[in-house]
Amino acid sequence: MGERPASTDSKQQLARSVPCLARASLRISRTCGLDRPAATLRFVSGTRQTALERLGLATVRDVLLHVPRRYLDFSHSVPIGQTDMGQDVTVVGTVDAVRTKRPRPKMVIVEVDVHDDSGVLTATFFRKPWLSDQIHVGDTIALSGKVSFYRGFRQLKAPFHEILSSEGESGSYARVLPVHPLSEGVTAAWMRRIVSAALADAGDVVDPVPADLVASHDLMTQARALREVHYPSSMNAAHDARRRLAYDELLSLQLALLCRRR
CA nearest 93: which of 23, 52, 20, 154? Predict the structure, then answer.
C-alpha cells in the first residue's frame, strides 16, 4: 500500500514552521559564534585589536559583556544657565572657542568655551593636547562633570566629552549614550562601533535560561539585555538590562559551585 498523502492542514503547519526553523538555525549559529576572536569583528584590526587585548576582550562574547561604566542621559541634560555649584550635570552646547595653555613645562591645558541659549561655561582638560585638534569652533558637544566656578564663570574640570556633530552638520544623537571603559588606541566612538558590530553579528543569541524562569523573575531576554545595556532606550531599560546580566552571572556561579559540590 502507498503512503497516505499528507493532509492540507499538515502541509500548512509545515510551511509555517519552516521560517521559524530558519530563524532558530540563524540564532544558534550566532550563539555558537560568541567564542570567535574579537579580531573577526568589523573595525577591529591593528591598534584597536591591541587596545581590546589590553582590556581583556579576546572574543565576541567579551565585547558583548563589556558593559558601559556609565551613561550620558541627554533626556535629562541641563541648560547651562541652570547648573549649580557642585552639581553633577550633562550639558549640550556649541563650541565658541578652543585655547591651549602651557603654564609650565610638560603641563598642557586645553580650554573649551561652550554656550547654549541659557548661558556659557568653560570645559578645562588637563594633559590632553590632542583635543585642540579634535574639537573645533561650531561643533556641538556634550559635556558631563561637576560644576565649579572660576573667576565668576561656570567651569567643568576634566569632564567627559562627546562631539555630537561638527560645524555645519545637523546633530542627531541617542537619548542615552553609553560610556564604555577604554584603552589607548580606541576612542569612545570606535568602541561603540565595535560593540554595534558585535551586536549585529552575534547579538540575537539563544537564551540559556528557560522562558518560564525569565518570566517568573520579571527579567529581560538575554538578547534584549545585551542590546539595552549598550544602547538603552531609557535609563530604566539600562538598569533592567544590568539586572538580567547580573542574574546570569550569579546563576552561572551557583551552578558551578553546585557541580563542584556534587
Answer: 154
Kindly report the pTM of this predicted structure.
0.70
For residue 58, the SS3 value is: coil
Tell me the mean pLDDT in the region 174-182. 83
Residue with cell 538590562: 241
184 dihedral zone (left: phi>0; alpha: psi -120 to 50; beta): beta
- What's the grid cell of residue 69? 561604566
- Let me know: does 112 contact 123? Beta carbons within 8 Å: yes
Among candidate residues 145, 84, 154, the one with its CA nearest the CA of residue 115: 154
What SS3 class is residue 162?
A: strand
- Distances in whole angstroms, Cα of residue 218 to Cα of each of 201, 206, 227, 241: 27, 18, 17, 11
Residues 30/204, Cβ–Cβ less than 8 Å? yes
Predicted local distance difference test score (pLDDT) of residue 14: 46
